[in-house]
Amino acid sequence: MVFPLPLRVACSLIAWLSLYAWFCHRYKHRNYEWSCRLVTLTHGILATCLSAYIGFIDGPWPLTHAGSPNTTLQVHVLCLSLGYFLFDLCWCVYFQTEGALMLAHHLVSILGITASLALGESAAEVNAVIFGSEITNPLLQARWFLREMGCYHSLTGDLVDFFFVVLFTGVRIGVGAWLMYCELASPKPRWYIKLGGVIMYAVSWVFMVSICRFARRKSMKKYHAWRSRRSEELFLKTNGHLKNQ
């Protein structure tokens, strides 16, 4: 028996809400954002793995089959992610933790997934967008958890930031540009699906500007810290040499 799409999305939403409630019960000593971040991390890992399987193994290939009819597995994954985005959007609005850009990102994601499910097509490229968006999410959440636990200013924190910047630049900006070109060049996708893809890519570039600024600040801070340590070492060596004389 095949359940209607609204029912499947509702079940997904209830599942994410239930997981959030369990995390809140499990981590009573933590704040609500801790539990929400765990839900986000869970969705990020799950969505990345499922969308990667669909795109690279199950098919169809989004770069050559934009606008193709949705497969059963694609529909399942889109319903799963749609339920999550609805949960996270409501959570962010209620607790007012995110800015307009992130809310716009969630809203466009919701509209894009809903349109694909309603049309019964274009899930290949929408799934690819989910993959590109979620592949960096676990690193973003890991960065937040490291900060909360006081472990961010360490080698682990530096590695997380490095791989986040590399993945974001390579996948969301590099591969994202290729996907957007294929989407716009194909005659099959509807114009509003194409528009949604352009908006999502533009949002990625806004995030990229912020990431570049962050990377520059962190690099300069690391450089000045290294220069300071180097100066201290040279001073100590020179001072010791003078004393020996």
Automatic annotation (TrEMBL):
<feature type="transmembrane region" description="Helical">
    <location>
        <begin position="75"/>
        <end position="94"/>
    </location>
</feature>
<keyword id="KW-0472">Membrane</keyword>
<feature type="transmembrane region" description="Helical">
    <location>
        <begin position="158"/>
        <end position="179"/>
    </location>
</feature>
<feature type="transmembrane region" description="Helical">
    <location>
        <begin position="191"/>
        <end position="212"/>
    </location>
</feature>
<protein>
    <submittedName>
        <fullName>TLC domain-containing protein 5 isoform X1</fullName>
    </submittedName>
</protein>
<keyword id="KW-0812">Transmembrane</keyword>
<keyword id="KW-1133">Transmembrane helix</keyword>
<feature type="transmembrane region" description="Helical">
    <location>
        <begin position="6"/>
        <end position="24"/>
    </location>
</feature>
<feature type="transmembrane region" description="Helical">
    <location>
        <begin position="36"/>
        <end position="55"/>
    </location>
</feature>
<dbReference type="InterPro" id="IPR006634">
    <property type="entry name" value="TLC-dom"/>
</dbReference>
<feature type="domain" description="TLC">
    <location>
        <begin position="29"/>
        <end position="204"/>
    </location>
</feature>
<dbReference type="Pfam" id="PF03798">
    <property type="entry name" value="TRAM_LAG1_CLN8"/>
</dbReference>
<dbReference type="InterPro" id="IPR042512">
    <property type="entry name" value="TLCD5"/>
</dbReference>
